[in-house]
Every structure is written in C-alpha cells, then in structure tokens.
Amino acid sequence: MTIVIKRVLASTLKEIAEKKSLSKITINDLTQACDVSRQTFYNNFKDIYHLVEWIYLKEVVTPIERGKIYDKWQDALTSIFQYISENHVFVLNTYRSFGKEFLEKVLRQEIELFLSNQVFKKIEVTKEEAKQVEFSYSFYTYALVGVGLDWIEKQMPESVEELVERIERVMLGEIISLL
C-alpha cells in the first residue's frame, strides 16, 4: 500500500508542477489534490524535496542501477537524456526551484551508474593503467553532468540524439584507446 501512495503523491506532484513552481507547492496543495491526509504524506516523505528525490530515484536511477544492459553505451546515455527531455517541465521546475546543486546530485548518480555499468566495467587494465582509468571515470562524470546541466539550463535546445552524437564524438577517442 505504501508504494501505491508514494506513486500517487509522485504523479500528483508532477501534475501540479506543470502549472506551479515546486518551491510554491505546499504539502497541503499536494494532499488535497490526492485526497489524503497530511499525516499520510509525512508517513512516506519528510518534505517535498524528499518526494522529488524519490521520483528521480525511482524513475531514472533505479532502472539504471538494476543493471539494464544496453547494446551500446550511447543507448544508455540516450535513455538518461530522453527522461530529461520527456519530463522537461518537471526537470526545469526542479532546476529553477531547488537549484542546480539538487539536480547536479541526481545527474551525478545517474551518470556514475551509467559509466560504471556501461563503459568502464568493460575495461580491463593493469595496475599502472588503473590510475588513468580512475581519472577518466571522474573526468567523464563531471563532463557529462556539466553537459547535462548546461543542456537543461539552456532549455534543451538540441534533440537528445544530437546531444548524444556530439558527446559520442568526444568520448570515442579516449574510450577506444582504453578498450
């Protein structure tokens, strides 16, 4: 029953966020729209931030965490940016209401999982090469998070496919040499 309530609260929050800034949505707004008590909300989440984090965790991070294997790393990266594109109003609302740091934390989780599951897991290295691979992992995490935040901040001016294609051109050189 708890997961059903959480999903109802999450979908209702996303609906309300289509029309109202997340920072302006109150627990009362949400519980009235769901026809549940405030206590029901607090039994599941400590605040709106916690609910928003749960939404991103369940909708983006968990599927990647479960280790879904993609034929190509570009497909995994596309799925992350596709979620952002398909939920652009909610994502932009999160960005504007909670700040860059909140979204950066969520994106970093996604990108780290993507890199570890889809790219760097496949690389076999010696001890000498491990330091470079670790640096590359860190570098690409920060680079992809930065590119993602910039894309969000500019309100996604290019398609997901165009963005991933540009990233692919940059990444392929180093990743191929590591493989």
TrEMBL record:
InterPro entries cross-referenced by the UniProt entry: Homeodomain-like_sf, HTH-type_Tx_Regulator, TetR_C_Firmicutes
Q: What is the top-level taxon of the source organism?
A: Bacteria
Its protein name is TetR family transcriptional regulator
- Please report a single Pfam family linked to this protein: TetR_C_8
Which species is this record about?
Answer: Gemella morbillorum
